[in-house]
Amino acid sequence: MSDKATLEYNGQKYEFPVIKGSEDELAIDIKTLRASTGGLITIDPGYKNTGSCTSAITFLDGEKGILRYRGYSIEDLAEKADFLEVAYLLIFGELPDKEQLQKFHNDIREESHVDEEMKKILDSFPKSAHPMGVLSSLTSALIAFNPSTVDVSSEAAMYHAIVRILAKFPVLVAWTLRKKKGLPLEYGDDTLGYVENIHKMMFRRPGKTYEKNEIVIEALDKLLILHGDHEQNCSTSTVRIVGSSHAGLFASLSAGISALWGPLHGGANQAVLEMLEAIQADGGDTKKYMAKAKDKNDPFRLMGFGHRVYKNFDPRARIIKKAADEVLGDLGIEDPILEIAKGLEKEALEDQYFVDRKLYPNVDFYSGIIYRALGIPTDMFTVMFALGRLPGWISQWREMRLNGEPIGRPRQIYIGENHRPFVALDAR
Ligand code: ACO
């Protein structure tokens, strides 16, 4: 296999190195394209063919349905590790030993307070505000209370920034939910595990003792792990590109949350549930909605189907589908929405339109059903996604800064007006 690619243009030949990843993926390295060809660039809207970086964090093979964090399969991690171990693995590259994990958790506990003044900011939002907007704003507001930029040349400063956000972000998530529900804002409980503590902060009712439900905590842990990282997706690329200007970690994360919000990305889990509820309210006729999804004159898309990279199946969807069945069974919940979901999935998998376009259920198709079973309101689903993706965003930001990547600044091909004389207002 050649380690060079040749471009022929205007009778001239230009050679570019072909680089190979550790899983044999190949890329033409065009770093010198513009300079060597006197101005040629590539154009690739949506970056469908463009690698923005090399990365040692997550490997996924969309054709084979493989997803690994730092070399470990998502199936193994979802079954054998907990979310905090996976967060450590993603960020620092190796699974922690007992001592490292204990220290990591203790350091996070030490930072789990959020400045009381933040409550005033939260207070100023209407209850009806979308939780993703609130979370993004609160994450941004954290900068005001933690203003120092991270000295990336110092391992200790980097570590401190990381544990601070891993500690404070769950508090913001819990407050976002509690504000929505009109519940008093609370802090965590040092004696609990990371995920259990988040659950308690979100759901404890005033005056009531919090009772741990193993099934719920395990399901939540698994969901967070499955959302941990997904290489250079829209929100992660946003975090990296904002961070590439040397904006701080919290500012970069806040931008990532906004990117995740959209219904074509993390917002799809909310959109899936809303779609299923709409189908139920409309009499449960899945065929009608299948026809709408295929009609090019109808903007309706089957939410939770299709993925930019997974073109055979989404491995996370497989794990989550099984977990949804287990959680609903264990909690004794019979949800008609699940039946509609199963009906839609079956029809889509057998339908030529979906087969031809390789459209399969993605992680969001089933995650909403579990979140609903866990009592999480629909518009909080994407917030839960953000909670799971936090370690991924942090690890990608850290890698980008440690690699000394240049500022992200794509080019364009201008197709607007050529130079024209200015016309004064009176003469227009
Ligand atoms: N329903 C109906 N048709 C679809 C769907 C869908 N959900 N998804 C894609 N298609 C069709 C498109 O209309 C297009 O058809 P055409 O070739 O006849 O024009 C073809 O399949 C290819 O679709 P693209 O939009 O070009 O695929 P792309 O890779 O750009 O988009 C995306 C992927 C955004 C996920 C898309 O499949 C989609 O909108 N899905 C629904 C939203 C969703 O579930 N998003 C969550 C993604 S997972 C995540 O973020 C965790």
Q: Can you describe what's shown?
A:
This protein has 428 residues and is mainly alpha-helical. Helix content is 52%, strand content 7%. It is built from 18 helices and six strands. The strands form two sheets. It has a three-stranded antiparallel beta sheet. Strand 5 and strand 6 form a beta hairpin. Helix 7 packs antiparallel against helix 18 and helix 9 runs antiparallel to helix 14. The longest helix is centred in the middle third of the chain and has 27 residues. The chain is globular and about 80 Å long. Bound molecules: acetyl coenzyme *A. Acetyl coenzyme *A (ACO) binds next to helix 17. Pathway: Carbohydrate metabolism; tricarboxylic acid cycle; isocitrate from oxaloacetate: step 1/2. Belongs to the citrate synthase family. One of its GO terms (cellular component) is cytoplasm. Pfam families: Citrate_synt. This is Citrate synthase.
Radius of gyration: 23 Å
Alpha plus pi helix count: 18
Bound molecules: acetyl coenzyme *A
Order of helices and strands: EEEHEEEHHHHHHHHHHHHHHHHH
- What global shape is seen? globular
**Roughly what percent helix?**
40-55%
> How big a fraction of the residues is strand?
5-15%
Q: What structural category characterises the helix and strand content? A: mainly alpha
- Specify the biggest β-sheet: 3 strands, antiparallel
Highlighted features:
mainly alpha, three-stranded antiparallel β-sheet, 18 helices, 52% helix, binds acetyl coenzyme *A, transferase, Citrate_synthase_sf, citrate synthase activity, Citrate_synth-like_lrg_a-sub, acyltransferase
